[in-house]
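User: My advisor, Dr. K., asked me to get a structural model of this assembly before our group meeting. I'm new to this, so sorry if the format is off. These are the inputs:
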Amino acid sequence: MMFVKTKKTTTPNVMSNILLHSLPTANYLTNPKPQNSSISFHISYSSPTNSSFSFLCEHSSSKQEQTQKCKDGLNLNFIRASKLLKDLSTWGIGGPCNYFVQVHNQTQLVSAIRYCHEHSIRFIIIGKGSNCLFDDLGFDGCVILNRIEFLESNEPGIYRVGSGFRFNKLGMQCSNEGFTGLEFAGGIPGTVGGATYMNAGANGQETADVVDSVEIVKNDGRFQMLNRIDLKFGYRTSPFKSMKDLGSIVAVMFKLQPSGSAKRRLQEYLERRRVSQPIGERSAGSVFRNPPNLGIAAAELIEKAGLKGFRVGGAMVSNIHANFFINSGGSTSQDMLDLIAFVKEKVDQKFGVQLKEEVLYVHPYCNDLNPNRDK
Ligand SMILES: Cc1cc2nc3c(=O)[nH]c(=O)nc-3n(C[C@H](O)[C@H](O)[C@H](O)COP(=O)(O)OP(=O)(O)OC[C@H]3O[C@@H](n4cnc5c(N)ncnc54)[C@H](O)[C@@H]3O)c2cc1C
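Assistant: The format is fine. Below is the predicted structure of the whole assembly, which you can bring to the meeting.
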């Protein structure tokens, strides 16, 4: 496991959809030494009960990985160097995070979550970062990169999949094996965990349609198995978004039906994407949800408002798909936020429609659990 410590930053004046698996307030006092060779810094935390504790971290650039023993006896590798969120997001935007850790199995995931919980470090789990807008200021907490990538199938059409497994790979495998329900996933560059959290969908299919059960771990490290019947999904939303004590989705069981045409459908959907989306550009998919009960897509409204190709700095409305905003090179998070705000305003002025973001903005100092998320 690898943790990264970075500088303290100030809160930007921007609010949009905010997401976080948050923990109590943490106050950071950072005193880096001026030279690159060796940096030490002191971190102090305040717990909600006002009991505070502190520890000293030492960083040497010659040795950026260290092994640290956690309470549960696991040896964890902590990296203490700048990990840039732009390298973890498809938009290619985002500054450094204070701590970074990559997990490859359930035990590591639980240890990382427990560690953050016990040390009052706010944290966020990410998969491929394909639906997140990170801030240039970074994230004042721990980013847990999920790479739990197993897939088990003991019965035809039943797949138990690690939450870090690539969703597009799963879609292709199931369709090629002759099962229907995840053909749409073939073109979605996220993970199973991200897709379940977002209830990703396309082409009239969505993740929730084929979920049978979800295994989660809570903030305090406890496991829970949730059956589909107890989970209320909606359009691009899931009950996980409002689960205050959610640590992470660990694995998902999918139940698919046999179909002779799934493979062909998958290819059709992929071809449709190839001609209608800016494949190869840096994007986060659709920026806005389609407005409910209007019979018109967000992309069409943006296009009709004459905004295709409109840009703010390095952020641009795609000329190919108006609901895809691309980082055409050097876009800052503020460029993207300004572009989103501008497009919202124009569409509202012209059509009286208030678009709502599908992408999630990760606030650098969010202490609350996604306060702007679906009510
Ligand atoms: C080119 C392109 C095309 C796209 N097309 C589509 C599309 O057709 N349909 C669609 O719905 N979306 C689409 N997307 C958006 C995105 O790929 C999906 O929402 C995807 O499911 C996000 O997965 P991720 O792993 O990247 O999530 P991330 O962006 O890493 O995270 C998204 C959210 O999920 C949470 N999360 C991630 N993993 C976990 C976990 N294990 N446990 C708990 N919470 C977790 C994160 O904390 C965050 O809140 C597209 C994106 C791109 C770039």
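One thing worth pointing out at the meeting: The chain is about 20% helix and 30% strand.

User: Perfect, thanks a lot.
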